[in-house]
């Protein structure tokens, strides 16, 4: 998708793969994107916003994925800051937003989504079995899990959330993100390299940063690129 973006592909270009051989998460981590088992999709955007606001698009995408998958699920999905969607406490989807920008102007944004749809527990690599899940394992009775329909539904849900964010600001999207968050109000551990710091997750800022309270009572803001969260 980066090659397409750099070659001038238009705003709204979508690439969907059946299999992804080099799926990535944050901080260079690998993302398992097995053939036939999920929706591996990237959306190219060229928003007229300041580069500092781009990470909020990750939050908008998480809201859209939740809206799309909720009707087929027996339990409500939740968003783990900044970019994971959990079902029954396990990760079913990850979202990664990358951008290319010059000083004040965004050239392109790529929102990558990996959504596990058809994995059976044994299909996951060994190390993921205790923390990953797939929509197929949580379907409401009678639901049909069709990847084409679901991919379209994610995009249909994303469009108004994204347009509202770009035109009117982040308030409405953030309110829904907070309502769907499973992070806010929880005790978490901030993991940065070898360092682990206990904290209370208080709020999320307009640009997607997480506001936490440390044990000494002070508050700190953390960015998605620097920290992983573990629940205590
Ligand atoms: P963590 O879940 O360890 O907190 P993170 O949110 O900090 O990870 P991400 O970039 O969101 O990091 O995701 C990468 C991590 O997600 C990988 O290190 C791996 O543990 C896990 N993972 C990889 N592929 C999948 C998948 N298909 N489904 C669920 N989880 C996956």
TrEMBL record:
<keyword id="KW-0547">Nucleotide-binding</keyword>
<dbReference type="Pfam" id="PF02237">
    <property type="entry name" value="BPL_C"/>
</dbReference>
<dbReference type="InterPro" id="IPR004408">
    <property type="entry name" value="Biotin_CoA_COase_ligase"/>
</dbReference>
<dbReference type="Pfam" id="PF03099">
    <property type="entry name" value="BPL_LplA_LipB"/>
</dbReference>
<dbReference type="GO" id="GO:0004077">
    <property type="term" value="F:biotin--[biotin carboxyl-carrier protein] ligase activity"/>
</dbReference>
<protein>
    <recommendedName>
        <fullName>biotin--[biotin carboxyl-carrier protein] ligase</fullName>
        <ecNumber>6.3.4.15</ecNumber>
    </recommendedName>
</protein>
<dbReference type="InterPro" id="IPR003142">
    <property type="entry name" value="BPL_C"/>
</dbReference>
<dbReference type="GO" id="GO:0005524">
    <property type="term" value="F:ATP binding"/>
</dbReference>
<keyword id="KW-0092">Biotin</keyword>
<dbReference type="GO" id="GO:0005737">
    <property type="term" value="C:cytoplasm"/>
</dbReference>
<feature type="domain" description="BPL/LPL catalytic">
    <location>
        <begin position="1"/>
        <end position="166"/>
    </location>
</feature>
<dbReference type="InterPro" id="IPR045864">
    <property type="entry name" value="aa-tRNA-synth_II/BPL/LPL"/>
</dbReference>
<dbReference type="InterPro" id="IPR004143">
    <property type="entry name" value="BPL_LPL_catalytic"/>
</dbReference>
<keyword id="KW-0436">Ligase</keyword>
<keyword id="KW-0067">ATP-binding</keyword>
<dbReference type="GO" id="GO:0016740">
    <property type="term" value="F:transferase activity"/>
</dbReference>
<dbReference type="InterPro" id="IPR008988">
    <property type="entry name" value="Transcriptional_repressor_C"/>
</dbReference>
<dbReference type="GO" id="GO:0009249">
    <property type="term" value="P:protein lipoylation"/>
</dbReference>
């Amino acid at each position: 998708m980066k090659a397409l973006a750099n070659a001038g592909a238009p705003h709204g270009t979508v690439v969907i793969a059946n299999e992804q051989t080099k799926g990535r998460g944050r901080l260079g981590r690998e993302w398992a994107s097995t053939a036939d088992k999920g929706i591996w999709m990237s959306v190219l955007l060229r928003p007229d916003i300041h580069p500092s606001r781009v990470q909020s698009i990750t939050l908008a995408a998480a809201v859209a994925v939740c809206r799309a998958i909720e009707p087929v699920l027996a339990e409500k999905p939740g968003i783990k800051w900044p970019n994971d969607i959990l079902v029954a406490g396990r990760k079913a989807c990850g979202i990664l937003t990358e951008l290319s920008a010059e000083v004040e102007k965004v050239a392109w944004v790529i929102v990558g989504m990996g959504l596990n749809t058809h994995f059976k527990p044994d299909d996951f690599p060994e190390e993921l079995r205790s923390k990953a899940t797939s929509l197929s394992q949580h379907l409401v009775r009678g639901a049909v899990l069709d990847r084409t329909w679901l991919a379209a539904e994610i995009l249909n849900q994303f469009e108004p959330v994204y347009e509202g964010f770009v035109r009117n600001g982040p308030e409405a999207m953030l309110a829904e993100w907070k309502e769907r968050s499973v992070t806010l109000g929880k005790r978490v551990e901030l993991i940065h390299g070898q360092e682990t710091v206990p904290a209370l997750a208080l709020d999320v800022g307009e640009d997607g940063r997480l506001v936490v309270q440390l044990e000494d009572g002070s508050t700190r803001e953390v960015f998605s690129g620097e920290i992983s969260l573990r629940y205590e």
